[in-house]
Amino acid sequence: MASIDIAHERNATATADASARPHLAGLTRPLLMEALKQFGLPDNQLRMRAGQIWNGLYNRGFTDFERMTTLSKELRGKLAEAFDISRLEIVTEQKSVDGTRKWLLRLPSGIPGVPGPEVETVYIPEEGRGTLCVSSQVGCTLTCTFCHTGTQKLVRNLTAGEIVGQILVARDALGEWPDGGRNSEDRLITNIVMMGMGEPLYNFENVRDALEVVSDGEGLSLSKRRITLSTSGVVPMIERAGDEIDCMLAISLHAVDDETRNKLVPLNKKYPIAELLEACRNYPGVSNARRITFEYVMLKGVNDSLEDAKALVRLLKHIPAKINLIPFNPWPGSPYECSDWEQIEKFADVVNRAGYASPVRTPRGRDIMAACGQLKSETVKARASERFKEARADA
Ligand code: SAH
Ligand code: SF4
Question: In the annotation, is 120 catalytic?
Fold first, then answer.
């Protein structure tokens, strides 16, 4: 499939903004008030000023204090000297033939002259909804054998500001701020999935704070029911996620026996299937109205037999569950093949007959490597080959 590539290497080689000013995006309201207190605002102004800045950041999408005209000119100037509210840098933007969009974003490195690491964010428009797939880490410490991100070592956790920042960039690009002429009822980003690069439960506090900001009713205002956190199964953090984040949960199950899951999701050796499912049964807030999604990647000859399908249904019998079958998305050098379509349909039939509706997820944005588990980015490879060429030229 051909892609419409609207990539523009915008400052791709420019050095990162190593601004020493703390960034305000992603601070929860109490943390924002604390930052303003440290800055020197009197206690009796903190709530109001934080509210005004919050409105500027999350309802208006301002990236410049000058536009926050509810604050005095003098205060705007002082805030601009003390704090950063700029956007993450877009390195490239790609658009798939199916409308999926992918942004490669550069994070600050914190070191002058050194370009920061990159993450990817994907927007998937569908009938009646639009889902933004957000990254939580650059790379991943886990090494799931079917996942492209898993081949990239963890570079670092994203800050809460960088997690929220992905949504702000997407809103800019989609023209979703009120100034873009859209009314707030008519939203383009209706759902958030923490299914980009990284394991969100290994960056717990930042993910929690970011999602608190995202779901704040006086800001971006995305309900927790429309936010899904996907985990490979970090059992000890699942209960905490329910208590402190309280969003929808997705579990990357992918196999019905420990032997197979150990190979696909090596974290299973630490937290085997029985323990994982026990944590799901106890997930705070789980009910028939708030089901847990179990993701199951379809790998030819590995986990796709009808016996596996029956075992999957048996395994999830006593858990309020949805099942999401994901056709495997290949990446260069990946050691698996996607199950044949016929086999996926037979597998889905078994799952359907057990009462689970429309379980197969249509792959989106495959032509721009934006589908599940493909994120790592061509860029990393491209950069490596550029460096190789440069090294050869120097030699
Ligand atoms: N680390 C988290 C979230 C990011 S991965 C997790 O593992 O759940 C998001 C989803 O994409 C997970 O279900 C993951 O198993 C799946 N995935 C990874 N690589 C894939 C691939 N190549 N094809 C299809 N799905 C994949
Ligand atoms: Fe990390 Fe999730 Fe990929 Fe596994 S599937 S390597 S946990 S991003």
Answer: yes
